[in-house]
Amino acid sequence: MVKIGCCLDKLSDGFAEKTITQVYGDFATGKTTICLQLCSQSF
Q1: Residue 19: count of CB within 10 angstroms of its CB
Q2: Domain ranges, residue 36
Q3: 1 belongs to a structural domain
Q4: ∠ CA(34), CA(38), CA(39), 5° rounding?
Q5: From the CB of residue 1, how many other CB atoms can be counted at a distance below 10 Å?
Q6: pLDDT, tens digit, for every residue of 7-35?
Q7: Residue 41: CA atoms inside 13 Å, Cβ hemisphere, count?
């Protein structure tokens, strides 16, 4: 749930991919896609 919440906050800024990339680092490649998808479905 923490990842989804972070994604939602970042999406509001418009820098979801870039911000998540810095937060997750190596996992950004996979986490970013998952996080963005989860956010889209949540909305």
Answers
A1: 18
A2: 7-41
A3: no
A4: 120
A5: 6
A6: 555 555 555 555 554 555 555 455 555 56
A7: 7
